[in-house]
Amino acid sequence: MSCQTTHRLSRLCNRACHCRSRDGRANHLPWIDLGRSGGGDAGEGSNGSHRAAGSHRLSGRRWRSRKCGRDHGKCRLPEAVEPERGERWPSPQGYSLRSRCRNTCDAVDCQRYASSRRVPAPVSRPARRIADLDWQRNRAGAVIRQARLILALVGLMSLAGGSSAHSADFGPVQCTVRASYIGAPMHPAVAITTMAPVPEQALPSGISRRLDGIYKRIEEFTVASALTAAVAVPGKGLWQKTHAPADAPRLFWASAGKTFTAVVVLQLAEEGKLSLDDPVSRWIAGVPSGEIATLRDLLAHTSGLFSANEDVGAHADPRYRDPATNLEIVRRHGALFCPGANWRYSNTGYDLLGEVVRKADHRSIDEAITARIITPLGLSSLRALVPGGGSEGVAPLVTAREQAIDPSWAGAAGPVVGDAADMARFWAALLGGRLLPKRTVRAMAQALYPMYEKGTYSGLGIMVFDVNDGARSIRWIGHAGGTPGASAIVAFSPADNAIVAVALTGDSATVPAANMLLKALAGPE
Is 340 left (phi over 0), alpha (psi -120 to 50) or beta? Predict the structure, then answer.
């Protein structure tokens, strides 16, 4: 097996198994530079340790894959293999180091060393185990962690000091009143200015040629079986590229589709069919703390609801579960904190919002998204999946574990498939005030809760990325998404005055690819 690294496992396996070629160069990151001009592995310093980063040169070229056997190098276990206090491995609990590294290092050498150093996965509460390999688990966090190798973005799935977004950090509570927020400091409100229309024309030839070149690099580095990318610049035009199977041209946008669910809910609020301050119990009975938690809490992930896909039994048996079944799982876990007291990502919260839409709008979430967004905007490539209805015409999700993943299982927590150009058009319409009043769009970024670490924040159906890539400060307004076998990002960059959208199948990251595309806008037209 070659030293081809899956980005989801790279942070762990770079510590656990270091494959080196004859010339001594690290040979475990096939895609290391996606926009940063210098520095090292930024993924090691976020759990309070601030260990010295690796010395990888971010040169922008792909390391040639070499075998890591006896003739070409070795696989060694450095001291850093031991987990730090409070750290969690980004893979299912109980996996041996052998399993974690099987896609990173030479199988024989890695397994021999790993067998002698089996590393248990640390958990503070075994009953609250969280495995990010579940298809429905938000992998926006994993996407950001992968990108930190290049962009110094903070890893959303890590346990940051001061952040309390992991279920194991909470216990079931009984709530009688709404609580004041006691989590990590919130981000100041972000001003969202109205975006000018994006003309239906190609970007200038100079920019388009650079973007074409970047796209080819992304294809080579990710080896994705399906890839779609687009860059939209107000007043200038749109660039797009897609390769996908002819019979399955649409790609899954995972949690980046949550913005569609949020827009439908906000439209219903504007129409007076519901209020964001409605208690959840007004629409759905039996929700933990449902008399206190509001629809706004579900949108913002401040309800305290457990995410049903994190349940050990649900993880062991991945399949579509309807909202009623997910609610039964949530009831068993109870409220993790009183509504408003903290922030914690919950796919089940958006699953329940889909039920609220069905009752308030008298149609399913896929029908509402189609009628309210896709059809009026003429987004012909986009399709809202029927929850549990299958995914015909969608590029197959390719996972390292060869696990079959059906995107329709996500329901309202990830309802959309399509190409990047139409995702960019959707965001241009949203930021341009064509889907919601401008004041409502601005409200989506008023209360921004810190996610798993500083630098990434959650609003009402959107995310704000506020970080530095080593060369410049980056602020993006958008949403990331991911699942085993797929990764996606769509965001507006005020500094570049552009929307970027990237989705792919496989286990590579999309955030660094998006940053490369945005940087290509600089230069002669």
Answer: left
